[in-house]
């Protein structure tokens, strides 16, 4: 028996109820959105590093697959109808998210900046999801195409990615080209901390040896 998914879209004061088949491409995307939003909420409630790290790994894996499904299959299908403005913005939002993901993959130290970076990623993705569900998906749904056939292609591709792994992307290559250096916010914070320590040490030495400083 085919399961149907209720998709609720709000725009202003209006609310539209979409009852979509489980394999409908938009239903698949909405389900992915719900999954990552739940992971973000769990991360915010987590108190210790171990559950936080596990949630981050799960969210990153889900986001990588979701991005590929959209970029390879869904976006090309709906781009012309939805329009370049919305689609170009979605492309750029994907790029920003993938840069953050690449930096998270590169820096596995699990320090405070690592968790801050994931929080920024979550905020960015939530914004992206809101725009997709409020603007892109309602527009895409107007298309007279076989969304279930598209959804099946997306499910098949997802199985393949889960089996074979995620192919490298340009954002990971870009971060790797930094020769393993820390990403700039963490590196800058470390430099500021080292500078403060050195300055404090210097001032302490001057206070202990005022004559030496005067000479």
Describe this structure in words.
- It is elongated, with a radius of gyration of 23 Å.
- Helices cover 75% and strands 7% of the residues.
- It has helices at residues 25-45, 49-82, 84-106, 112-140, 147-164, 170-176, 184-208, 210-214; strands at residues 4-11, 14-21.
- It has 215 residues and is mainly α.
- The protein has 8 helices and 2 strands; from the N terminus they run ββαααααααα.
- It has 2 domains: 4-181, Four Helix Bundle (Hemerythrin (Met), subunit A) (Up-down Bundle), CATH 1.20.120; 183-215.
- It starts with a strand and ends with a helix.
Which helices and strands, and how do they pair?
Elements: E1 4-11, E2 14-21, H1 25-45, H2 49-82, H3 84-106, H4 112-140, H5 147-164, H6 170-176, H7 184-208, H8 210-214
Antiparallel strand pairs: 1-2
Helix pairs in contact: 1-2, 1-4, 1-5, 2-3, 2-4, 2-5, 3-4, 3-6
């Amino acid at each position: 028996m085919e399961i149907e998914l209720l998709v609720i879209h709000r725009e202003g004061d209006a609310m539209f109820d979409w009852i979509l088949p489980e394999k409908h491409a938009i239903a698949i995307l909405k389900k992915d959105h719900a999954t990552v939003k739940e992971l973000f909420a769990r991360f915010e409630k987590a108190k210790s590093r171990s559950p936080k790290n596990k949630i981050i790994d799960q969210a990153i894996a889900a986001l990588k697959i979701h991005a590929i499904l959209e970029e390879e299959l869904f976006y090309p299908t709906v781009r012309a109808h939805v329009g370049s403005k919305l689609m170009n913005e979605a492309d750029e939002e994907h790029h920003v998210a993938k840069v953050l993901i690449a930096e998270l993959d590169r820096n596995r130290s699990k320090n405070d900046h690592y968790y801050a970076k994931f929080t920024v990623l979550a905020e960015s993705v939530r914004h992206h999801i809101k725009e997709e569900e409020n603007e892109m998906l309602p527009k895409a749904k107007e298309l007279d195409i076989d969304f279930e056939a598209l959804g099946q292609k997306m499910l098949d591709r997802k199985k393949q990615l889960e089996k074979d792994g995620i192919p490298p992307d340009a954002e990971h290559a870009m971060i790797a080209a930094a020769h393993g250096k820390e990403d700039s916010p963490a590196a800058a914070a470390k430099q500021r901390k080292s500078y403060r320590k050195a300055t404090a040490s210097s001032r302490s030495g001057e206070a202990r040896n005022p004559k030496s400083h005067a000479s």
